Amino acid sequence: MPEDAILRDASLIASGRRVIGIEAAALASLADALGDSFAAAAQLLLATRGRVIVSGMGKSGHVARKIAATLASTGTPAFFVHPAEASHGDLGMITRDDVVMLLSNSGETPELADLIAYTRRFAIPLVAVAGRAESTLIAQADVGIVLPPAPEACPVGLAPTTSTTMTLALGDALAVALMETRAFTPAEFRDLHPGGRLGARLATVGQLIHRGDEAPLVGMDAGMPEALLEMTAKGFGVVGVTDAEGRLVGVVTDGDLRRHMDGLLSRGVAEVMTRAPRTIATTALASEALGIMNGSRITTLFAIDPAAPGRPAGVLHVHDCLRAGVA
To answer: For the segment 272-314, what is each residue's pLDDT rounded down to a tens digit?
Structure first.
């Protein structure tokens, strides 16, 4: 590589490290500065009976969209309203049950004026995030969070870089604080993220199992001919055995069949079955079930509903996990 190219690469890397260092220092300062205003803002968002309306102009608008999306995906109903569109009818999207959160580094963004006036006219709680404590936005807000002073990372000190990074991190901090306060569960998270790999990772056993007549089950007094017919008809390569109370007491697998080939059809399932089989709760993650099947070198697991201990709620096959994208 030519020497000038090496020098250019070194300069680029140094520039990147400088920017990240500036923004990392600003985030540390923001963490230290969080106090009563942050708690008050979180309390307002927790108490709202409506939605959180997040808005900002320019780069603050992009950050506002992300904050609204993060809140909505973590259990706090929220959406973004563009301030210019708000002035042309979208103010009607905001109700008195909502909380409005406005972002502006200067606190003087003219496009936010109508939103500010609307919240004051109809007594809608207003949370403001700005970089100047003496700004109009902070003065008008019910709760104002002031970002600590920090230089923008760009060489001329004008492009929104450090300020937007701090605002974005503040939005994440609010969203996570609300999640933890509400004890937002992985199951609830999956309800809001049903698609893609994230949804697959959070899928539960109960969402994937075969229930009712699809599950291969016979009573403990059944003979092996009945068990073989049930195993063949359901196609899982296994049949569960239940006692008089409907509790799972054993399974008959292909391996059990091979071990009892001599006089198999004259036997009862109680003679052939494997007792105390591995099971899994319907509430467990499917990834846990896949781990058990891989570790035990089996292809099926009967699932037990914790509300009905011992009773099989259905059966899970390894292919069910793979089809759902669980890995």
So the answer is: 999 989 999 999 988 899 999 999 889 999 999 999 889 999 9
Work out the number of other CB atoms within 10 angstroms of the CB of residue 199.
17
* Token pair belonging to 178: 């609300």
Residues in the chain: 327
Are 76 and 52 spatial neighbours (Cβ–Cβ below 8 Å)?
yes
Nearest to 246 by CA among 273, 220, 210: 220
Q: Which of 49, 82, 46 is nearest to 174 (CA)?
A: 46
pLDDT digits (tens, 9 = 90+) for 110-140: 999 999 999 999 999 999 999 999 999 999 9
Give CA–CA dist 250/270, Å, rounded.
8
What pTM was computed for the model?
0.66
Do residues 100 and 51 make contact, with C-beta atoms less than 8 angstroms apart? no
For residues 73 and 138, give the distance between their C-alpha atoms in angstroms, rounded to a whole number.
27
CB atoms within 10 A of CB 141: 25
**Distance in angstroms (rounded) separating the CA atoms of residues 34 and 74:** 21
